[in-house]
Automatic annotation (TrEMBL), chain A:
The chain crosses the membrane at residues 167-190, 210-227, 247-266, 272-289, 427-445, 451-474, 742-762, 768-793. GO terms for cellular component: plasma membrane. Residues 5-77 form the Putative metal-binding domain. This is Cu+-exporting ATPase. The lineage of its organism: Bacteria, Pseudomonadati, Bacteroidota, Flavobacteriia, Flavobacteriales. It is found in: Cell membrane. PANTHER family: ATP7, ISOFORM B, CATION-TRANSPORTING P-TYPE ATPASE-RELATED. Belongs to the cation transport ATPase (P-type) (TC 3.A.3) family. Type IB subfamily. It comes from the Bacteria. One of its GO terms (biological process) is copper ion homeostasis. Keywords: Cell membrane, Ion transport, Magnesium, Membrane, Metal-binding, Phosphoprotein, Translocase, Transmembrane, Transmembrane helix, Transport. It is a multi-pass membrane protein. GO terms for molecular function: ATP binding; ATP hydrolysis activity; copper ion binding; P-type divalent copper transporter activity. SUPFAM superfamilies: Calcium ATPase, transduction domain A (SSF81653), Calcium ATPase, transmembrane domain M (SSF81665), HAD-like (SSF56784), HMA, heavy metal-associated domain (SSF55008).
TrEMBL record, chain B:
InterPro entries: Cyt_oxidase_maturation_cbb3 (IPR004714). This is Cytochrome oxidase maturation protein, cbb3-type. It comes from the Bacteria. It holds the Pfam family FixS. The chain crosses the membrane at residues 6-26. It comes from Kriegella aquimaris.
Length: 798, 64
């Protein structure tokens, strides 16, 4: 069959293509966007990149809260009454067409004076005249063209998001000083052996002091501004009685600076200002390289990033008003419209609730609720409007109180001792003892040289290359993983990943796919007439289960039903030529034996006799058995599922024998389970997807979120793995282990350089030029070594 | 006064000018987004109807 693809979004149009302007569209939404673009001379959008659009989903009433001036005030960056600037996060930005159309918004509404897209962050900064177009109108306009901004409680709560540029400044200062000091050192380099007393070149000797004091001035901002962090970190480490790698670095920097200053004051020599500035510059370069961030991803999200800012409260007189969710009190009546999120636990009072808990549990199947039922926060209403009465405040709801657990206040990074730091301790001790031993030796033989040798050892042993090995190896590894769609929060995560010995998995949404599910038929076989009737009845229904089942059944001729009726929350029935079929819940079809159905099933009743049921199974991700089999060789595995035991037999088949399976686990249970394992000394990796795994992800040593769409959702974690790459997870763990090996190898290499340098230092013949050559040489060779090695490693990865 | 002082002064002034230019560019946010400008510079002649002068102006505004 020929597939017709939508001109706007590129999706398959199915049988119901809408033809407009001799182009095909999958739905009215896409057609409308095309109309808007073409009537405003923006059709270049489609030339830039074909089928670039996103189907708009507009529920205008969803943005009613944007009429409230206090909320507008908090969301806007700038607001003087008639000009407002707002920075909106738009997850659907994905190509150059998006940039182009969003930067030409003024063609759609002249009140928008300028708009600028930040593609890596997926934000657009819009300046507009607020007396002509309100923030709400602006957001609705964006939503109508398929660029719906994501406005959440997090935007409301933390307004100030300052970008930290201090590292770039420091790098700039150090680089600037390094370059200039190098230039100013040139006279000294060429005039090595010829000082004034040896009858050296008069011209250079005369101006020696000018050059030296200029170098001194250049080195001041390097030591006191650019290198400040190393001193702070070293002091912090020493205070907590812990020798980190920054201790020898800080020691090296201060000795370099002091000795050089004293040398030029007493005119003993040129000092080591070139090495000093170079050292700080290279160290900062390593830091900069390590600091790769995926600005469009957030690893710190909590429920606030998903919750709305305000909801509609129904007052006793039937009046409706927007209320900020923090102000909700117990007993408030809320109106939740289609596609709106329920921010608080409550009781359903009125309406037909079909709630999608997919981002809480990962389960894609919506849940039906009847009035009087308890509803938990975090679900999204999919039908028409419902009314609920709140039972708790937002922060005390079932889901959100998970965040009051102390684990969310903990900073994981402070607990972890990195490989570099653990080497730093031994390194510092040995360097200090070599320095003292050498000084003692020279005190005995030639006391004038003792101080010289002592400082020379500290200078040459400054662990620049060691400090660079880990940032460059792991930083490069981070980029390689990123290209494979495995996004890690920081380089430390790679080190932790390499140490993992236990892996815990969530079931729904993690090892099962959210999109696909399969169904098998159990019961009396259906006749071909019944099959045709079944398919045609399902065709008319919009229920997600009906749609799934419809797509799975074999093609049938399309016939028009004589009668069709949909019973909300129960099922559908249809009839033709006296044949009658009922499809739906067990009660609806008159099936009573099935008391404890664990799996979702759809029952069939034909002409008032019960026929059988379609049982839906989770579809497991590709290659899941394989992954688990490989992993079980080196890792301890377990499954923690929030679901019932319905899938237990199938899981047992798929997974290696004796893999522990735990069902009916609440979010707190998962967290406690991991804590328990950690108390036994295990290094635990948690792989999950929903907000209900958030506690476990935070508690684990490495929390990895699986995501079908990286842009949409992921709870706070250390890494985000694209769902299609799930089967390579174990390869990534092995690659991390190899990366750590590379770091260790580079440590050996840099120690070699240190031994060579120490030879010069201990024998008292360290010339500034040797330090100036050795230091960059060791650093650069380490950088080349690690980059080449990690790239070889990365090439093997899929 | 020796010419070396003049030369040093000139070289320092030049270096400091570049350094200030760097600081100013970081401050204005040039290093915050290193991707979008590379795409933006390739947009041109995107109008279907011919209104070049007006469009250029708007393009300028939106690129601010």
């Amino acid at each position: 069959m020929d597939r017709i693809n939508c001109y706007h979004c590129g999706d398959d149009c199915g049988n119901a293509a809408i033809s407009f302007d001799s182009k095909n569209f999958c739905c009215n939404g896409c057609k409308t966007v095309y109309e808007i673009f073409s009537s405003n001379d923006l059709s270049y959008y489609y030339d830039l990149q074909s089928a670039a659009g996103t189907t708009p989903k507009v529920v205008e009433s969803k943005y009613d809260f944007l009429d409230t001036s206090t909320i507008v005030q908090r969301l806007t960056e700038f607001n003087d009454g008639n000009l407002q600037i707002v920075n909106l996060y738009i997850p659907s930005i994905h190509c150059s067409s998006c940039i182009w159309v969003l930067e030409n918004l003024n063609k759609l509404n002249p009140a928008i004076t300028s708009s600028q897209v930040d593609f890596p962050k997926k934000t657009v900064r819009i300046t507009y005249a607020s007396d002509t177009i309100s923030l709400k109108a602006l957001v609705v306009l964006l939503a109508r063209i398929g660029y719906e901004p994501n406005i959440s409680l997090a935007d409301y709560d933390n307004k100030e998001k300052k970008t930290d540029r201090s590292l770039i400044y420091k790098l700039g200062v150090a680089g600037f000083a390094f370059g200039n000091v190098m230039f100013l050192s040139f006279p000294e380099y060429f005039d090595l052996a010829t000082s004034k007393s040896d009858g050296g070149e008069f011209w250079l000797n005369q101006y020696q002091n000018v050059f030296r004091w200029l170098m001194f001035i250049f080195s001041l901002p390097v030591v006191f501004y650019a290198g400040r962090d190393y001193f702070i970190s070293a002091v912090k480490g020493l205070r907590s009685k812990f020798l980190n790698i920054d201790v020898p670095i800080a020691l090296g920097i201060s000795v370099l600076f002091l000795r050089s200053t004293i040398e030029i004051i007493f005119d003993w020599g040129p000092g080591f200002f070139d090495s000093l500035t170079g050292l700080v510059f290279f160290l900062l370069l390593g830091k900069f390289f390590q600091q790769k961030t995926y600005s469009f991803l957030s690893f710190e999200r909590d429920y606030k990033s998903y919750f709305p800012i305000a909801v509609t409260r129904v007052l006793s007189g039937g009046k409706e008003e927007s209320i900020q969710v923090h102000n909700l009190k117990k007993g408030d009546r809320l109106l939740i419209r289609n596609e709106e999120l329920i921010p608080v636990d409550g009781i359903l009072i009125r309406g037909n609730a079909r709630i999608d808990y997919s981002f809480v549990t990962g389960e894609s199947e919506p849940v039906h609720k009847q009035s009087g039922d308890k509803i938990f926060a975090g679900g999204k209403q999919l039908n028409d409007a419902i009314e609920i009465e709140t039972l708790k405040s937002v922060s005390q709801s079932y889901l959100t109180q998970l965040w009051s657990n102390a684990i969310f206040q903990d900073d994981k990074s402070t607990k972890f001792q990195s490989l570099t730091d653990s080497i730093g301790k031994r390194f510092t001790i040995s360097v200090l003892s070599i320095a003292f031993a050498a000084a003692a030796y020279w005190l005995f033989y030639d006391s004038s040289k003792a101080l010289n040798v002592f400082t020379a050892v500290l200078i040459i042993a400054c662990p620049c290359a060691i400090a660079l090995a880990s940032p460059f190896t792991l930083g490069n590894m981070l980029r390689i993983f990123g290209r494979k769609k495995f996004y890690l929060k920081n380089t430390q995560t790679i080190e932790q990943l390499a140490q993992v010995d236990t892996a815990i998995f969530d079931k729904t949404g993690t090892i099962t796919t959210a999109q696909k599910s399969t169904a098998s038929y159990e019961g009396m076989p259906l006749t071909s007439d019944e099959e045709s009737l079944l398919k045609n009845t399902l065709r008319a229904s919009n229920h997600p289960l009906s749609r799934t089942l419809y797509n799975m059944l074999a093609e049938q001729d399309i016939i028009t039903l004589d009668e069709y009726e949909e019973h909300l929350g129960k099922g559908v029935e249809g009839s033709i030529d006296g044949e009658h079929i009922k499809i739906g819940s067990a009660d609806f079809t008159g099936y009573h034996q099935d008391s404890a159905a664990l799996n979702t099933s759809v029952h069939i009743n034909s002409n008032n006799t019960y026929k059988g049921k379609y049982v839906f199974h989770n579809e497991y991700r590709d290659g899941i058995s394989e992954v688990f089999k490989n992993m079980s060789e080196t890792l301890q595995l377990a499954i923690l599922s929030g679901d019932n035991e319905g899938e237990k037999p199938r899981l047992e088949q798929l997974l290696p024998k004796l893999t522990p399976l735990f069902f009916n686990q609440k979010p707190e249970n998962k967290l406690e389970f991991i804590k328990e394992l950690q108390n036994q000394g295990k290094k635990v990796m948690m792989v999950g997807d929903g907000l209900n795994d958030a506690g476990a992800l935070a508690q684990s040593d490495v929390g990895i979120a699986i995501s079908e769409n990286v842009n949409v959702f992921s709870p706070a974690c250390d890494g985000i793995l694209d769902a299609t790459k799930f089967k390579w997870l174990y390869q990534y763990i092995l690659a991390s282990k190899k990366a750590i090996k590379i770091v260790k190898l580079s440590f050996m290499l840099s120690l070699l350089y240190n031994v060579v340098g120490l030879y010069f230092a201990v024998t008292g013949q360290l010339q500034p030029v040797i330090a100036a050559i050795l230091m960059p040489l060791s650093s650069i060779s380490i950088v080349i070594f690690t980059t080449v090695m990690t790239n070889i490693l990365g090439r093997k990865l899929k | 006064m020796s010419v070396i002082y003049v030369l040093l002064a000139i070289s320092l002034v030049v270096a400091v000018i570049f350094f200030t230019a760097f600081i100013v560019s970081v401050k204005s946010g040039q290093y915050d987004d290193s991707y979008t400008p590379s795409v933006r510079m390739l947009f041109e002649d995107e109008l279907v109807k011919d209104k070049p002068s007006e469009e250029k102006e708007k393009q300028k505004k939106s690129n601010k």
